[in-house]
């Protein structure tokens, strides 16, 4: 029987008696047939049947105590689920692949599987994409491999901004900054902190932007950075309601060196009515009259 008859291969695999007494030999035979059928269906572009065959092949390899091969087949099933637009299975299959890689003690491919799922879903099922990005980051963080997660922090931030969840986006940028601190990536750390401040300003939350700046300035690396000095100028311009200065700062090289999604936000500043802030600042600067001065 050749791999050009994938339906017959599937039927033969399904008919294999997987008894408790002969499960090992039977599953080995069935798994080989499922793998051959999966390849045949994929070549024939019958992606739905190929997906099902890879899923069964994965189960077979798992029972045969081969989690690595099981994970590979599960990733293949996930990619095919994406091809046919079965978005729920995309997330489920990549998660299962990640769990199987963890069984092998391999955090990098485990994180990669979740990241593939996140990228497959980030334009269609945004909430699920975020969960997968968070899982991918956590997998590397738990293994002390923060340096490898930088693209994942970026990906999660982009999805949060797409969802207009600016507080969450800023929080994830701060998480990126902390990760960068742990691996002495000072430049990435400082850019992440400045990016968080810009996100708060874009969300028209000057108070939170100032608080974020104050908190980040407790960290010596940021306190002494060009990004810190730039953030100070940008916050001052916002507080003073100086629209021209805000727009001038947004064109600076400091902004140009940030990620594209942050550059776009910065160049749309100011988003709120900063002229109102200007009048508030002027009122604060006026010396209040004491009633005793009138007597």
Automatic annotation (TrEMBL):
Cellular component GO terms held in the UniProt record: SNARE complex; vacuolar membrane
Region (Disordered): 276-295
MF annotations from Gene Ontology: soluble NSF attachment protein activity; syntaxin binding
Pfam families (alphabetical): SNAP
Signal sequence annotation: none
Membrane protein topology class: Peripheral membrane protein
Superkingdom: Eukaryota
Subcellular location: Membrane
Keywords of this entry: ER-Golgi transport, Membrane, Protein transport, Transport
Parts forming coiled coils: none
Major site of localization recorded for this protein: membrane
One BP annotation, GO: vesicle-mediated transport
InterPro entries in the cross-refs: NSF_attach, TPR-like_helical_dom_sf
Family per similarity comment: Belongs to the SNAP family.
Name assigned to this protein: Gamma-soluble NSF attachment protein
Species this protein is from: Quillaja saponaria
Organism lineage: Eukaryota, Viridiplantae, Streptophyta, Embryophyta, Tracheophyta
